[in-house]
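REVIEWER CHECKLIST
Item 1: Sequence provided? yes
Item 2: Single chain? yes
Item 3: Sequence as submitted:
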Amino acid sequence: MSVRLQISAMLYLMIQAVLFGAGIIAILSTPLAQQAFTLIPQMTIATALVSVPLAWMLAPRVRAIGRRRNRPLAAGA
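Item 4: Structure as written out by the authors:
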């Protein structure tokens, strides 16, 4: 399993949780709450699908940040 896939899997869970929370708040705090029974399952599937490409795009950036933090200092620095 590649490092990018591992990082993406961890990011997926966090991204999906944030999008799900934002979606639930958007549905339940507006007049859409009357249709929550049908909208919440649709919103859950949509956030799960949207989270996959977002996690895949963010994984290299997270890896680059980790590499910069762990880079050894130059001899004269």
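Item 5: Key structural point noted by reviewer: The chain has one domain: 3-70.
Item 6: Recommendation: ____
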